[in-house]
Automatic annotation (TrEMBL):
InterPro entries: L6_membrane. The gene is TM4SF5. Keywords: Membrane, Transmembrane, Transmembrane helix. Belongs to the L6 tetraspanin family. The keyword Membrane applies. This is Transmembrane 4 L six family member 5. It is a multi-pass membrane protein. GO terms for molecular function: arginine binding. One of its GO terms (cellular component) is lysosomal membrane. The chain crosses the membrane at residues 12-30, 42-69, 90-111.
Amino acid sequence: MCTGKCARCLGLSLIPLSLVCIVANALLLVPNGETTWTRDHLSLQVWLMAGFIGGGLMVLCPGIAAVRAGGKGCCGAGCCGNRCRMLRSVFSSAFGVLGAIYCLSVSGAGLRIGPQCFMNGEWDYHFKETSGAYLLNRTQWDLCKEPPHVVPWNVTLFSVLVAASCLEIVLCGIQLVNATIGVFCGDCGRKEGTPH
């Protein structure tokens, strides 16, 4: 596959993934769909905005850059082809890998530590000492009284962020290699008007 076409496909995959991360992070701010708990009782991992910043905006930029790298060259026909845009995509993809790693790290920590919730008469990270074992014991989830259903809410959304950020790391890594090849070798696509 030509580097330009590959870049376009990768970019078109990264853009929806980044939007999924942004939406998942936004939903984490409103446990059980209620804003009542947002002010004082959200976990630190939610406030770090890893889905919005890391897996979202920091991956959205490389996604757009990759789509643009798959378009016509910045210098017109013949000059540098799409090598200028591929070079920009190299740096954007590296930036995207960092953002996705940030999202994966924070979301993984959010899953391991668990949400802040009201249980046994106090607000705390009650599942912190279980090192993630609570994920396999759903009977413990109901022990959190407030916010209502916060454990399945957090587990589902942080799991989405972990899965999306893993895919983003892979796709940004592939685009990093693809764009580097594109910088040195150009696009293998034929120019318009070139005979077959």
